[in-house]
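Lesson 9: reading folded outputs for more than one chain in a single document. The general rule is that every protein is listed as its sequence immediately followed by its structure tokens, and records are never interleaved. Here is the first one.
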Amino acid sequence: MTDLKYGDVSDRLDGHVALIEIQRPPHNHFDAKLIEDLADAFEAMDKDHDCRAIVLASEGKSFCAGANFSASVARADDEVAATTSRLYQNAVRLFACAKPIEAAIQGAAIGGGFGLALVADFRVVSPDARFGANFVKLGIHPGFGLTYTLPRIIGIQRASLMFYTGRRITGEEAFAWGLGDVLAEPDRLREEAMKLATEIAECAPLAVQSTRATMRRGLADAVRAQTDHEHAEQSLLFQTEDHREGVRAVSERRPGRFKGR
């Protein structure tokens, strides 16, 4: 058994399955540093011959409630844009991982946290999970490659519905839509994710990785191109009054009073 630590990310290899855990409870808000640490952990397992599958999980109430915009709203627009660019560069590293990934999703997977959940090949979700692409409620364009990855999984109509409205769906709805692959009660969530990872790890590893590379061929490059576009759109919208109002509205749990400027 191997235990490694990358900032707020722990990495434990037990047999042929690695458990990579985000440790920023209760909501596991991410920033550029956290995504970089996750990418470092993923790459370490890519290089470890004994690792054949990865389970991505989080401590606390939420899988990942996205970026903490209320903490960054006071920062200059150009600083936010530069940080977002660095974040997306490391997000592409996650998508470039060669080993199969199973994510255990409890609670909120919102915004960029939703995008992080879609790095995985499979998602084990609890009924209390909530998925939301709430970017329009914050007055910005979707990011983290979601405009590429989400339609690929649930279809363009359902993805557009989530993007245009910012609405959230439950774990049960996600399972019905094919966004979740296994539905498990909260007390069995991680157990079911490890079970799926172990089933994969029992197969011939070179064959699994070869098949996965074919199934995900071009994915990292497509996400890189898409995040470049998403970042350009977000950089413009970060400077708007609507974005500042969106952050206030979400923080105050009220509808935004947007003015289109």
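And here is the second record, again sequence then tokens.
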Amino acid sequence: MISVGLGLAYRQITVLFKNPSLFLPPMLFPLMNFMSFAGGLSRLRHVPGFSFHSGYTAFTFVFVLLQSAVFGGVFAGFGIARDFEYGFARRLLVSAPHRSGLILGYAISALTRWTMIAIVLTIVALIGGMQIGGDGVDLFGMYALALIVNVVGLLWACGVAMRFRSVQAGPLMQTPVFLLLFLSPVYVPLTLLRGWIHEVARVNPITLLLEAGRGFIDGRPTQVATAFAVAAALVVVFAVWARTGLRRAERAG
């Protein structure tokens, strides 16, 4: 399984570097969001009750980091669907001795691509004056949480792609993720939300991950064990989702 996964990951990464058009949109999307949120909405830090010691740039950075992580996985799902349309993935299903390695390979390539995005995003944020209150351990926790979110996004999109085996399933991969992200405390803390959006955000699992990530960068970790437990549970659930999608693709031939 590992050899299959590494071989497929090498192929996907090679294709990525040979086709910048596949890499630039996922890179530009979070950078544009970060610059617009951190710049255009920075005065929200003056709202009464807004308390975040590291400043609004860091507050926004955590959301954009998690957003880039999950959409990094989702964009990899587009590649899976495209491989099915071109016939490459079908040949893999026939030739690969351990077909679970296909999911591993796509996951490795998605993680590699997102790592590059995360590095560029972090550099831009630091150049933009982002303050960091946490230490090295805190930052490790924040990026580890984002890494798990990347895997969750990949597994979700992988399951969809292998069920439909067409890039036309792209909106189905994106829309639920988009809704979950923007029904969380994106611009202000949860305590400042009011009405139905507060009630929805309060039960949204993304809210827990987002608040934990912000706690890390601010040097005041909060609900760490719960956040990682929820993230791990999402990985398990969507791993089953992706595996059943693979079986369906196998039966479809």
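What the second record shows: The two ends are 20 Å apart (CA to CA).
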